[in-house]
Amino acid sequence: MPSRSADQERGSVTAELATVMPAVVLILGCCLGAVQLVGQQVRLTDAAADTARALARGDSASHVTALAEQSVSGATYSVERRGEFVCARLGAPAGDGPIAVFGLRAEAFSCALAGGL
Questions:
Q1: Euclidean distance between CA atoms 71 and 93, whole angstroms
Q2: Which of 14-18, 82-86, 111-115 bottoms out in mean pLDDT, i.e. has the lowest?
Q3: What angle do helix axes 12-57 and 61-71 make, rounded to 10 degrees?
Q4: Residue ranges per domain, the chain?
Q5: Which phi and psi angles does 91 have, rounded to 5°?
Q6: How many CB atoms lie within 10 A of CB 42?
Q7: What are 2-52's pLDDT values in tens digits?
Q8: What does the longest C-alpha to C-alpha distance in the chain come to?
Q9: Rounded to an integer, what distance in angstroms lies between the CA atom of residue 51 and that of residue 57?
Q10: How far apart, in whole angstroms, are the C-alpha atoms of residue 38 and residue 32?
Q11: Rounded Cα–Cα distance for residues 60 and 76 (Å)
Q12: Mapped to the 3 state alphabet, what secondary structure does the chain carry?
């Protein structure tokens, strides 16, 4: 015969799970968004280096723009000269995940020697 304490605790696990589940989902979503943002930052850094090299070689503006947008959609770039170097700064809004709600923007900066190979 079941005891009275077992009857009183019936359903408590379900209630605890219902209380904790939103917090777990929120934390998991934030972690996945952070991983997505780090991946985008790596792609943006690589694209900034490629863009700076292309600008230093003297590639056309349309090729450089296509190169920047190919790696991260919505990426914009600006060009800056520093002595013998050509520098590119790329920026893009955070991806389509939960992090996009915060309006974060990823940026990367890279320079290459003008006239280099």
A1: 13
A2: 14-18
A3: 160
A4: 4-113
A5: -145, 150
A6: 13
A7: 566 656 667 777 888 888 999 999 899 888 888 888 888 899 999 999 989
A8: 88
A9: 10
A10: 10
A11: 16
A12: CCCHHHHHHCCHHHHHHHHHHHHHHHHHHHHHHHHHHHHHHHHHHHHHHHHHHHHHHCCCHHHHHHHHHHHCCCCEEEEEEECCEEEEEEEEECCCCHHHHHCCEEEEEEEEECCCC
Q: For residue 93, what are its two tokens? A: 């809004």
Q: Which residue has the tokens 């996009």?
A: 100
Choice between 95 and 90, residue whose per-residue pLDDT is larger: 90
Q: What is the total residue count of the chain?
A: 117
Place of tokens 């917090």: 23
Q: Are 84 and 67 in contact (CB under 8 A)?
A: no
Q: Is the pLDDT of residue 88 over 60?
A: yes
